[in-house]
Amino acid sequence: MHIDIISIVPSLLDSPLNHSILKRAQDKGILSVEIHDLRPYGKGKHKQVDDYQYGGGAGLVMMPEPLAELIEKLISIAPYDEIIFLTPDGVPYNQSKANYLSLKNRLLLICGHYKGIDERIREKYVTLEISIGDYVLSGGELAAAVLVDSIGRLIPGVLNDGTSALTDSHQDQLLAPPVYTRPSNFEGMEVPSILLSGNEAKINAWREEQAIQRTKTRRPDLFEEN
Ligand code: 6GU
Questions:
Q1: What is the Å distance from ligand 1's center to 27 Cα?
Q2: Topology of the domain covering 2-152
Q3: Which of 131, 138, 147 to mutate to test the pocket of ligand 1 (most atoms within 8 A of CB)?
Q4: Which of 28, 33, 49, 112 is 20 to 30 A from 20 (CA-CA)?
């Protein structure tokens, strides 16, 4: 999979994309991520990329021309499966969208700043508008990193243990059950004995029950989603 990201603060994306699982995916050639700085496409001597909004109001809006020029250049290299704008007024992101996007070949992520981007860019190019939660970030970069991480780890071959992603919280609309490792007694606190029983069927039933209980108390809304 190839992911292009348009940003006016490319350095915000360097670190999260170049560590651990995502780094390994890129080193293996399973995933490539390219960050494109919008600034050189800005207007005039100061390479301006934002301007006052029509109708008045606080906050600058990212101008359409620099974005259109860079998007057109990228589209001309190869078409995208989805062109995604990260925005707090997008549709909520969740595991099922991550699963869907992990099956694509080529994605373009557009990070906004200030009051957002000119609506005409959204109309002309954007195929999916995503929010990562009900709070406001100062730009789309951290949200883009969240998307790349959550999508990247689902691509076959990225995780060492391919079955592990399937048992994550949210993969089956349930939160994950508690997990334990050695020692079996930590400062007097024992690991639940069923996990030491070797009885796989009972262990699976216990995990399922714990997952249901956890979901009921913490995220009852997940039961209503489907
Ligand atoms: Cl995708 N962008 C910004 N700027 N803020 C957000 C967001 C995205 N999702 C939640 N808050």
A1: 29
A2: Alpha/beta knot (3.40.1280)
A3: 131
A4: 112
Residues with CB under 6 A from ligand 1: 86-88, 130-133, 135-137, 139-140, 143
User: Which residue, by CA, sits nearest to atom 8 of ligand 1?
Assistant: 87
How is the chain split into domains, by residue range?
Answer: 2-152, 169-225
| Average pLDDT over every residue of 185-193 | 98
| Short-list 38, 35, 34, CA closest to 114 | 38
Q: Which one is the CATH code of 169-225: 3.30.70.120, 2.60.40.10, 3.40.50.1980, 1.10.1270.20?
A: 1.10.1270.20
Atom of ligand 1 nearest to the CA of 132: 9
Question: Is pLDDT above 60 for 226?
Answer: no
Q: C-alpha dihedral over 159, 163, 169, 173, to 10 degrees?
A: 130
Cβ pair 159, 22 in contact under 8 A:
no
C-beta atoms surrounding 70 within 10 Å: 19
Residues whose CB falls within 8 Å of the CB of residue 114, separated by 6 or more in sequence, listed in order: 50, 59, 60, 61, 62
Rg of the chain over Cα atoms, rounded to whole angstroms, equals 22
Pocket test for ligand 1, best of 8, 94, 137 (most atoms within 8 A of CB): 137
Supply the residue whose CA is at minimum distance from atom 7 of ligand 1.
88
| pLDDT tens per residue, range 69-119 | 999 999 999 999 999 999 999 999 999 999 999 999 999 999 999 899 999
